[in-house]
Structure formats: C-alpha cells, structure tokens
Known about the structure:
single chain; alpha/beta; 23% strand; globular; binds S-adenosylmethionine
Amino acid sequence: xxxxxxxxxxxxxxxxxxxxxxxxxxxxxxxxxxxxxxxxxxxxxxxxxxxxxxxxxxxxxxxxxxxxxxxxxxxxxxxxxxxxxxxxxxxxxxxxxxxxxxxxxxxxxxxxxxxxxxxxxxxxxxxxxxxxxxxxxxxxxxxxxxxxxxxxxxxxxxxxxxxxxxxxxxxxxxxxxxxxxxxxxxxxxxxxxxxxxxxxxxxxxxxxxxxxxxxxxxxxxxxxxxxxxxxxxxxxxxxxxxxxxxxxxxxxxxxxxxxxxxxxxxxxxxxxxxxxxxxxxxxxx
Length: 285
Ligand SMILES: C[S@@+](CC[C@H](N)C(=O)[O-])C[C@H]1O[C@@H](n2cnc3c(N)ncnc32)[C@H](O)[C@@H]1O
C-alpha cells in the first residue's frame, strides 16, 4: 500500500453520506431558520448583555491575518460573525452564503457598523465553485461551513482563488451536548467526518497545511425544553416518536435543577483550524 494511492476523498464522501444534514442549495431553508440565532453571535461582538457565550469567534479573529489593503472572501459567512470584524480591518469582505436570511443580517450588521466594504453573494459554494462566479481574494475563510461531499473540489477551488492565505475549520466535537443527546436517543455517539481526511487531501495536493485544534467554551440558553429539542433536532435529522420522547426526557432531566428558563447548558466544542499560506511549493511526491 502506498500513501499517495489512498483515496481520502472517497472515505470523506462515504462518511458524509451517513450524515443527516442537507447539502448545497437544499440546505437553504434550514439555514434561513437558524439565522436569528446565529445573528446573536454578531451582536455579542459589541454587546456583552447576551447571556450566551462562544469564544470560538474571538479565537479565530486572533489567528486570521489581514492587512488594510487585502480583500477577504468569507464562505458560508452567516450574518457576519467573522466577516463584520474582518471588514473593519480589511479593504473589503465578500460574504458568500446559501441563505438569503443570513445575508440579510449580514447587510444589516454592515450598516449598523457603518461599513460600506461588505458585499454579498447568495449562492452555495458547490454551485459557485462548479461555475466561475468568484474572483480571486487575498484571504479566504470558510469557517464551519465546508461540511459536504464536494469538499475536495472546494479545496481545489479555494486554493486557486486565494492570493495569500486560507483558513478553513471543521468540527471535531460540535457540542458535547450533541453527543450526549445522540446517546440518549439510542443512536450511539455522533461523530463528524474527521478533519484528518482534509489534511491528507491537501497533502496529496502538495499543500502543507497547518493544523490547530481550537477548544471553545460554549454557553447556550434555551427558552424551554421544546426550544432545546428544536436546536438539537436540526442536527439529528428526522426522529421517530420514540426518539423524540427520549430526547424530551434527556432535556427534562438536564434542566431539572434549574427552576425557570432560560435553561442553561455550559459545554465545550472543539474545532480543527486548517490553514495555509500561498507560496512556492515543493512537489513531495
Ligand atoms: C455553522 S454556520 C457558520 C457561520 C460563520 N461562518 C461562523 O463560523 O460563525 C454555516 C453557514 O454556512 C452557510 N452554508 C451552509 N452550507 C452552505 C453552502 N453549501 N454554500 C454556502 N453557504 C453555506 C449557512 O447558511 C451558514 O450561514
């Protein structure tokens, strides 16, 4: 067996096919629905009154290097969790997202922050990279948005479009809560397709990427058990009545010691940050 002949992409695709999530344009409605909750993350950049907490964003912002004359492409930008703070430091940010609702929040957030250098592209990255819709940018960021069978095509396209550097992140543990919820409904422990396939695909593309595991504290607030079920349910996909009953019991037990809403979950998530700079490459094959 030879390392170069291992088909990491096929393994990645196989794992993706087992996941419950929708991909590409088909995911639009799901993300539209999630947009208000994600928008709270942008609010938190300027406002500490919100009780929820995720320090992933600040950790990412410490690592993404931009200069005032650089352009940034933010793939799966959401409401601008990274894009808005980056636009304050860069020449411009192009936010690409499949969800019109996320982009509506991005536009609002740009306006609230007095930014006129934020552009929106409403498309899936799958469709974008299949065509020729995007011009090169200095820095390309795809934060928590590249899960999908077509990831290798995306990595090739992203590397081709980046003039200086690329930052992409993938879940290792999305939320400890998810794992426990999966176990509670009898589906075993949920795992995401591993970032190790990504590193190996890049290696075979002659890209020596850096890896950093970012541990992030998360603090979620849920208005009710139903709210918690909905926030978890979108990741489990369709549940049977029996599974739904078990999930309800799981949250009722979890919140039993909290007398009134909002019900709080404190946990940790772990993300793989894979990043590389463009430059001369030595063919290692
Ligand atoms: C988990 S959120 C991440 C948002 C932001 N990048 C962050 O890290 O906070 C995923 C985002 O990717 C977008 N998205 C999901 N699939 C996509 C696709 N195939 N093409 C473009 N955007 C996509 C969603 O609409 C959502 O805004």
